Amino acid sequence: MKKIYALLLCVCSFLSVQVFADNRDTNSIEFFIVIPSYNNEKWCIKNLESIVNQTYPHVSIVYINDCSTDKTGALVDAYIEKHQLQHRVRVIHNPKRVGAMANIYKGGMMAPEHKVVAFVDGDDWLLHNRVLEMIAKVYKDNPNIWVTHGNYTTDPFVFTSYCRPYPVHVQKSNTFRRHKWMGCQLRTFYGKLFHQIQKEDLMYKGEFFKVSSDIAYFSCILELAGYDRIGFIKEPIYVVNMKNPISDIRHSNQKQVSMHAYIDKLPPYKRMETLFDR
Prior knowledge:
Radius of gyration: 20 Å
Order of helices and strands: HEHEHEHEEHEHEHEEHEH
Number of helices: 9
Helix content: 25-40%
Shape: globular
Mean pLDDT: 90
Number of domains: 1
Largest sheet: 8 strands, mixed
Distance between the termini: 31 Å
């Protein structure tokens, strides 16, 4: 009888530890926002404000100024100092310009494995101040979720994105690259997923991709997560800036089309069986 009682105590103790671990993981969602930015003096403050003014409190930011030739770097530094945001925002000033994909790789590899990562382009912004609260709820309500994507609108208004959840058969067969692109902003995922991406899979002929960087890294993320781990937010939560003359979205040129085709032919990543040991 004593042995049975002891065994029951052990089981209860184990279950209580498991429940605590699960609650700890799902109730402490922390965001790690990376902002790759180049020559965005007109929009850098609006961009930053849309993130630091979020209602969700657990957010840290890395701002990567890619050797801008305008006042972007100075404006960002002054804003952070004025509002005493040094504890929340780290600014990196690149000594030379390296391009969006290189900055995305740098920022993604800096992300702690347990934090939820998002990339916000330096000329874009979050649509309202409850975006991260909404996304955190998706992760909290379903602990199986490792990744989310959603929809965006544009400024000035031209269109709202067309994205939808990836069909179940695409997720189960791991054929994201062969399906119509649905991985729209705002994209979020656990940092550990990004750490699994091989650097060479974000490169072409020894250099980081010049275009289609979002498709390059997020295709890998979707494949690593796989079926039943991808959350979708239907309503727009992100604003793509159509006023910026150097924005990729304004240039649907042949180089982007050919690079997208190249990325789609790369071997898919295998679905991860587990993310964090519990």
